[in-house]
Amino acid sequence: MTITELKQTAVEVRKGIVTATHAAKSGHPGGSLSATEIFTYLYFEEMNIDPKNPKMEDRDRFVLSKGHTAPGLYSALANRGYFPVKDLETLRHTGSYLQGHPDMKHIPGVDMSSGSLGQGISCAVGMALAGKMDHKDYRVYTLLGDGEIEEGQVWEASMFAGHRKLDNLVVIVDNNNMQIDGTLDEVCSPDPIDKKFEAFNFHVIHVADGNDFAQLAEAFKEARETKGMPTAIIAHTLKGKGVSYMEGQVGWHGKAPNDEEYAIAMEELGKAGEALCQK
Description:
- This is Transketolase.
- Pfam families: Transketolase_N (PF00456).
- Residues 13-270 form the Transketolase N-terminal domain.
- Its EC number is 2.2.1.1.
- This protein is of the alpha/beta class.
- The protein has one domain (3-277): Thiamin diphosphate (ThDP)-binding fold, Pyr/PP domains (Rossmann fold).
- The chain contains 10 helices and 7 strands.
- The chain has helices spanning 3-24, 29-34, 36-46, 70-80, 119-133, 152-163, 184-187, 193-199, 213-225, 259-277; strands at residues 61-64, 140-145, 169-175, 178-179, 182-183, 203-207, 231-236.
- The strands form 2 sheets. The protein has a 5-stranded parallel β-sheet with strand order 1-2-3-7-6, with helices on both faces. A two-stranded antiparallel ribbon has the order 4-5.
- A hairpin with a 2-residue loop joins strand 4 (178-179) and strand 5.
- Helix 3 packs across helix 9 and helix 5 packs parallel to helix 6 (152-163).
């Protein structure tokens, strides 16, 4: 895909996030929107996957360690063709397969159930180790929140990954500087994030603007070229990116838009999509 096509796809992914959380009257739009470019780049450019064969043995794996941002993952999966985009409107409804957190037993394309913060990276490390032991070429990607990495289990998993030199593992930190109770500095800052990963023998890549596809492309290319150690990509993003009244607002971590807010968001995203089509 071209950069413009990726941007257009990201707009559609954002529409899905807003639509799903509005329909559910609950959910986590803020962190889903900040990670939209990451989801989009992974599923439309980076990973070796096949929506028609979700369990393909040699596929690349993805674990959403910050499982509460499921609306972002679901929207990316739906737009990639794993299931109908229309189904996003059933998010968190009784009887829907699109639960509040990813469920590998019922959702096509979900490689690991997640939700309990800190645990997803451990699963990803296990997958990467299995790939090495089985002499497979697949790669494993996991997305963590910067608030999530306050969990001690994250660093236990990182210690193991670095020790085992799992260069088929890419840990991505969505560094939007906000968590449910406030900014990182206000709650429990995990900084310096880069030095912590380096201490556990990771190759660290900073992405100054994690909502910029060109910068993400360079980062994932560098990760692929890194041998002998796992990679941590620290992506500096904007909470609520793409919806004006959500941007940089911690209150939108776990709150759904009402009817009026939904209309405003969809109008803004519609205009953003139209502008891209004219390029």
